[in-house]
Amino acid sequence: MSVADTHCHLDLYPDHETVIEETERAGVDTIAVTNAPSVFRACVSLTRGCRFVHPAVGLHPELASERYGELRLLPDLLAETRFVGEVGLDFRTRDEGERTLQRKAFREILDRCADYGDKILTVHSRRSAEEVIDMIGPKYPGSVILHWFSGTHSALRRAASYGFYFSINPAMLASGSGRRTASAVPPERLLVETDGPFVAVGGRPARPRDVQHVVEGLAGLLRVDVADLARRLRNNYEEVVRRRGAISVPE
Ligand code: MN
Fold first, then answer.
1. Which of 13, 43, 60, 237 could be cross-linked to 55 through a Cys-Cys bond (beta carbons 3.0 to 4.6 Å apart)?
2. What is the dihedral of CA 149, 78, 80, 238, to 10 degrees?
3. 123 CA distance to ligand 1 centroid (A)?
């Protein structure tokens, strides 16, 4: 079994049909995140019949104010998938009104997902790690994957103690701070992603099968055997999918 790509924008490749076919052929479980509720069903159509590609319903924080009204679609769409993303906060904006809408949108998404208890969320937290972790909290009923995490080590440790996972991508492995983050994640909380087509591998947009490059780079960084790490990542992903109900946190 191949290692999973837990965050990829499959609907945003110009040649998405080829990429989806290739992903299915390679057997790479892929969480196909989307950026707004109104495009979720188009992603479902693209991936109809797929065994490995899992469409996720999302509202990217940078679109939260523009697409806020689309949250009305959320209850229906959440009934169609366990996968949720891209969601979260992005505090690159200094506009307080926009930050407030991002918080409102994320709160609503978290609450709707909590009603199910078995959702798998891939979460963005640029310049907002502490607040994202606070909003989700230690007893969230669902699986949380912090994608491209760039918060402090103390925030990372807190998120790990809450049972959250961290997905490492090729861009992180190419930067000092990303490598420090990747090294600090407890092995049982590690996942990998491509964040394609926004992240490049070898001068072209990363595709799900490129998770293998991440596995190799990460194995080098952590000084562990590639096959052992791949097994670990596969097990971690299966644990995420198996998990139902509340994350159990030792008191
Ligand atoms: Mn993304």
1. 43
2. 40
3. 9
Ligand 1 centroid from CA 13, angstroms: 13
Distance between Cα 251 and ligand 1 center (Å): 33
Residue range 90-107: mean pLDDT, rounded: 97
Cα–Cα distance measured from residue 220 to residue 250, given in angstroms and rounded to the nearest whole number: 32
What pTM did the predictor assign?
0.96
Residue 204 has pLDDT above 60, yes or no: yes
Q: How far is the CA of 108 from the centre of ligand 1 (A)?
A: 20
Q: Which residues hold their Cβ within 5 A of ligand 1, which is an ion?
A: 86, 195
Question: How far does the centroid of ligand 1 lie from the alpha carbon of residue 39, in Å?
Answer: 15
pLDDT of residue 243: 78
- 13-46, pLDDT tens digit by residue? 999 999 999 999 999 999 999 999 999 999 999 9
Long-range contacts of 146-151 (CB under 8 A, 24+ apart): 147/6, 147/7, 147/85, 147/86, 147/88, 147/122, 147/123, 147/193, 147/195, 148/7, 148/124, 148/172, 148/193, 148/195, 149/125, 149/181, 150/125, 150/126, 150/177, 150/178, 150/181, 151/125
